[in-house]
Design brief:
Layout (H helix, E strand, L loop, with lengths): L7 H7 L8 E5 L4 E3 H17 L7 E5 L4 H13 L2 E4 L6 H11 L3 E4 L4 H10 L4 E4 L7 H6 L16 E7 L7 E6 H14 L11 E4 L6 H12 L4 E4 L5 H7 L5 E4 L1 H8 L14 E4 L6 H11 L4 E6 L3 E5 L13 E2 L4 E5 L12 E6 L11 H7 L6 E9 L5 E6 L4 E3 L2 E3 L1 H9 L4 E11 L3 E10 L7 H9 L10 E4 L13 H8 L2
Parallel strand pairs: 1-10, 3-4, 3-5, 5-6, 9-10, 9-11, 11-12, 12-13, 23-24
Antiparallel strand pairs: 1-2, 7-8, 13-14, 14-15, 16-17, 17-18, 18-19, 20-21, 22-23
Helix pairs in contact: 2-3, 4-5, 7-8, 10-11
Bound molecules: methylmalonyl-coenzyme A (MCA) and adenosine monophosphate.
């Protein structure tokens, strides 16, 4: 064991193939990055970050478009021993202001286009440095790093050192930053390496089509760590385009997607066995995969999608097997090292096959919410299990089925949308007395939001205008697809809004 063994980057680097001149990443714009490029590029960025003389534990926030350089910035932050904070590119100024105010990053990296407003709010919040990074390999970050040394910096880290903060919205109140450690991510990456049968370069190697955004667990950790820790090449698509994925499938062996990606690929007439002839594995997660999609995929391609389940706070928790029965409608069995139990309202385990709240424990479970010790304590049981907020059941053979959520959350196209956040925004609009946002089924996104708004007495509200105001203020995937004006919201005897009724009534 060397001193560096617990820095996640050191483990990823150790898995690079012997031939560093081989292609590690091929982009949809025709660029080829070798393993040596990843090593040297991330070293230069890491040395540049170190040259800024930031305090240990500094946060490096990035709201940038998907590019290989954005991935290098993430790897560089690991190497430099700082804490990476990825932000969804759809976030607008109020959302970004909150994350920067809360996380207090020493460095913020944004696109050149957004520099005027991002730098203003970052400097106001006390950020020392704001750099730009564009998806065409331009920007002040790369200009500055071009002068940095490429010596192989990798700051020693302990497994419990925080590597990344991922913000997950709250059902009530403020968004929480889940702190994931080097140990969380390395343990999960190693488990998945084995569990999903990744083939080493010596075994012919795997090639991953990377079509997901890289500011969430799925695209950044499950996909990128998966490829890097197996020395596997990535075909890097800046955004998901079903035609492009179809075109590149014959060159690949692994694909990861949220269910919407599978639905959209199924709509392509060219999808069939021939296109998938070299594929080894299709993996789905982040949202429930409908049995119809699972079956249609099997019929059209001859491949059985492997569904898995995870969270920002825990990375991956359960998975259907690579070898063995992939049971549609289930998220498979707990991964090695993960303890999972299903409990009732009192915290007692329910009998096998009965529905309850899912709680988990394991080396992959996060270190807590950033600067929220009380909230962290509430989300863990006395014996150290994390309360996922998911409702499900586990069969005697270990297979887990998610049947719902105790948290008020809509998962739309793999993105989490918290009704409480939108309701609080809508309630502050002039003329609004109250509102409710519910999720309804949608054939493309799985689930989408619908807003129900009650006007103040004497006010005439227009649903489209409410949505337009939301669109000007929050990330557009959060904007409900419909808004209806009601005279009142249905309530139960306790005065609580009956969202189930609204969901049924407004299902499209
Ligand atoms: C875009 N829109 C959406 C969504 N995406 N609305 C609801 N839900 C969405 N997910 C909006 C657009 O802003 C646009 O609005 C309109 O819907 C149509 O957009 P479209 O062009 O169809 O969207 P797109 O750009 O093609 O994006 C769809 C997408 C994308 C490719 C499915 O949403 C996506 O990449 N989703 C993956 C998210 C993900 O990686 N999740 C992992 C989280 P307008 O017309 O008004 O502009 S990690 C996680 O969950 C855990 C840990 C796990 O288990 O993995
Ligand atoms: P996030 O907060 O983005 O990490 O989202 C985590 C949530 O996504 C989980 O708590 C689940 O509700 C949901 N999720 C992830 N994977 C699956 C899946 N395969 N099936 C159903 N829900 C899932």
């Amino acid at each position: 064991m060397t001193k560096n063994d617990s820095n996640l980057y050191a483990a990823l680097r150790a898995a690079f193939p012997d031939d560093l001149s081989a292609t590690a990443v091929e982009t949809d714009t025709g660029l080829f990055y070798t393993w040596c490029d990843l090593e040297r590029g991330s070293a230069m960025l890491a040395n540049f970050l170190r040259s800024l003389d930031l305090p240990e534990g500094s946060r490096i926030a990035a709201q940038v478009d998907k590019s290989v350089e954005a991935l290098l910035l993430y790897l560089a932050t690991l190497r430099a021993g700082y804490v990476f904070l990825p932000l969804n590119t759809a976030y607008q100024s109020a959302e970004v202001a909150y994350f920067i105010g809360d996380a207090e990053p020493a460095v913020v990296v944004c696109t050149g286009k957004n520099f005027p407003w991002v730098s203003k709010l970052a400097f106001q919040a006390g950020t020392q440095w704001v750099f730009t990074l564009n998806d065409d390999r331009t920007g002040s970050l790369l200009e500055r790093a071009a002068c940095a040394m490429d010596q192989p910096t990798c700051v020693p880290k302990q497994p419990e050192d925080v590597a990344v903060i991922i913000y997950t919205s709250g059902t009530t109140g403020r968004s929480k930053g889940a702190m994931l450690t080097h140990g969380n991510m390395l343990s999960n990456a190693l488990v998945l390496k084995d569990h999903w049968g990744w083939r080493s370069p010596a075994q012919g190697g795997d090639v991953l089509i990377h079509a997901l955004p890289i500011f969430h667990v799925h695209g950044l950790f499950v996909a990128c760590h998966g490829a890097l820790i197996n020395g596997s090449k990535m075909i890097w698509l800046a955004r998901f385009d079903p035609k492009l994925v179809l075109h590149r499938l014959p060159d690949a062996s692994v694909f990861m997607g949220v269910p919407t990606l599978y639905v959209r690929l199924l709509a392509e007439p060219g999808l069939g066995r021939a296109a998938c002839r070299n594929m080894r594995l299709f993996i789905s997660g982040s949202a429930p995969l409908l049995t119809d999609t699972f079956n249609a995929w099997q019929q059209r391609t001859g491949h059985t999608i492997l569904e898995r389940y995870g969270m920002s706070e825990t990375i991956m928790l359960t998975s259907n097997p690579y070898l063995g029965l992939r049971r549609g409608g289930t998220v498979g069995q707990p991964l090695p090292g993960v303890q999972l139990r299903v409990v009732d309202g009192q915290g007692n385990s329910v009998p096998t096959g009965e529905i309850g709240d899912i709680q988990v424990k394991g080396p992959n479970v996060f270190a807590g919410y950033w600067r929220m010790p009380e909230k962290t304590a509430q989300e863990f049981t006395a014996d150290g299990f994390f309360k996922t907020g998911d409702v499900g059941k586990q069969e005697a053979d270990g297979y887990v089925t998610i049947v719902g959520r105790s948290k008020d959350l809509i998962i739309s196209g793999g993105y989490n949308v918290y009704p409480a956040e939108l309701e609080s925004f809508i309630n502050d609009l002039p003329g609004v007395a109250e509102s409710a946002v519910v999720g309804v089924p949608d054939p493309d996104f799985g689930e989408v939001g619908v807003a129900l708004v009650v006007p103040r007495p004497g006010v005439v509200l227009d649903g489209a205008a409410v949505l337009a105001q939301l669109k000007a203020s929050v990330a557009n995937y959060k904007v409900p697809k419909q808004c209806y004006v009601l005279q009142e919201l249905p309530r139960n005897a306790m005065g609580k809004v009956q969202k189930n009724l609204l969901r049924q009534q407004y299902s499209r």
